[in-house]
Specification:
- With about 375 residues, the protein is of the alpha+beta class.
- About 30% of the residues lie in helices and about 25% in strands.
- Strands 2, 3, 4, 5, 6 and 7 form a six-stranded antiparallel β-sheet that branches. A six-stranded mixed β-sheet has the order 8-9-10-13-14-17, with helices on both faces. Strands 1, 11, 12, 15 and 16 form a five-stranded antiparallel β-sheet that branches.
- Strand 4 and strand 5 form a beta hairpin.
- The protein is globular.
- The termini are far apart.
Length: about 375
């Protein structure tokens, strides 16, 4: 399918007049002819009837996914679905997923979701859904297999690094509600904030929580928990990082077009006035989470504890197409104040603490990382 994917992609690029440097016209026409020949042979020789429209959609998507795990094609139906709130019509498992080497990979389970509660973890590779092999399917096809009515059961089989045998989970689909900010005062007067995503009002919620903490004059140590936070809005990551800095660069983006390169800087006003800050991260911390953790680490403003983050340091744009569909395309990459890229590398903690056991759950009695963080703050 790779030959079909590559040639159809060149055809689409050529037809839609994208401003991309291509090989000379003779080579392009040869590839267009080759694609036509392949389609004709499929129609005449393949054992079953083939929907040519679906084949071309798959070809376009194949090329986009060969660029990186986050670029993809959205048909008009998929784009409309993404833009419309389902209002509970479909249930979910509560996992952020991506593609890696043709396999669906869990970026992060959403806090309190059905998937998180049964033990699905960041980094798991989904190999079967209700007994159907996932390898070879597109990300959107795999996501469709995981959809279903609220209350219905789904069986997923995963491979986990370090375990020889596959693990099977039976999960009851539910409506996923994301509460992006949670907080409490831990023993020895430590202000604890868990940020599960970067939504429109995450920074406002966090600001109010910090204000409440500061009114408690005994609190002078803080934990910002970004574990299993798959990211979200860039502007929220910038605002939240700025809460803890008085100056300096927060993040920059670099793209193919130099005019689109940008840098963001902190403004004076550390909300916790230099008090001790510890940030928890793990493999499920991605994108916006990595911007916050990376910037605070580079400025030596926080101690980073846990495991290395995911390594999603790229920005995707939704670019409309003439057929009313769109492509999700990576258009730039994030860079930390140090100049390091997050992509495929992630942020390494100052102190590495791995999960204590397979029974590990965040913010429970099994959470050895949080326990370590508390001992560190009070030691």
């Amino acid at each position: 399918m790779k030959k079909i994917s590559t040639t159809i992609f060149f055809l689409i690029l050529y037809s839609f007049n994208f401003n991309i440097l291509l090989a000379n016209e003779t080579d392009i026409y040869k590839k267009i002819d080759l694609f036509s020949e392949v389609l004709e042979k499929i129609n005449n020789e393949y054992v079953e009837d083939v929907n040519q429209g679906e084949a071309i959609d798959a070809a376009i998507n194949g090329v986009l996914q060969s660029l990186d795990p986050y670029s993809s094609y959205m048909s008009p139906e998929m784009l409309e679905e993404m833009q419309t709130e389902t209002k509970g019509e479909f249930g979910g498992l509560g996992i952020e997923v991506g593609m890696e080497a043709g396999v669906v990979k869990v970026i992060s389970p959403i806090d309190g979701s059905p998937a998180e509660e049964v033990g699905v973890k960041a980094g798991d590779y989904i190999v079967k859904i209700n007994g159907t092999q996932v390898q070879g399917k597109t990300l959107s096809e795999a996501v469709d297999l995981m959809r279903g009515p609220v209350g219905s059961e789904i069986e997923i089989t995963v491979r986990r690094i370090g375990l020889r045998k596959a693990i099977t989970f039976n999960i009851i689909r539910d409506i996923i509600e994301i509460k992006s900010v949670k907080s409490k005062v831990l023993k020895d007067e430590v202000g604890y904030v868990r940020l599960t995503s970067f939504n429109d009002n995450s920074s406002d919620q966090l600001k109010e929580i910090i204000k409440d903490f500061k009114n408690n004059k005994n609190i002078n140590k803080y934990i910002l928990d970004l574990r299993n936070n798959p990211g979200g809005l860039l502007n929220q990551a910038i605002k939240i990082t700025d809460f803890f800095l008085d100056n300096g660069e927060i993040v920059s983006t670099k793209s193919k077009k130099k005019l689109d390169n940008r840098k963001w800087f902190a403004k004076k006003g550390d909300l916790i006035k230099g008090d001790t800050l510890l940030v928890l991260i793990n493999y499920g911390s991605a994108s916006a989470s990595e911007i916050v953790a990376g910037a605070l680490k580079d400025h030596k403003r926080a101690i980073i504890v846990g495991e290395s983050s995911y390594g999603k340091g790229s920005v995707q744009s939704i670019i409309p197409l003439r057929n009313n569909g769109a492509i999700r395309l990576t258009v730039s990459k994030y860079y930390l104040p140090s100049g390091d890229s997050i992509s495929e590398v992630g942020v390494n903690p100052d102190i590495f603490v791995s999960e204590g056991s397979e029974e590990f759950r965040i913010d429970t009695d099994t959470d050895n990382q949080l326990e370590f963080a508390l001992k560190l703050l009070n030691g």
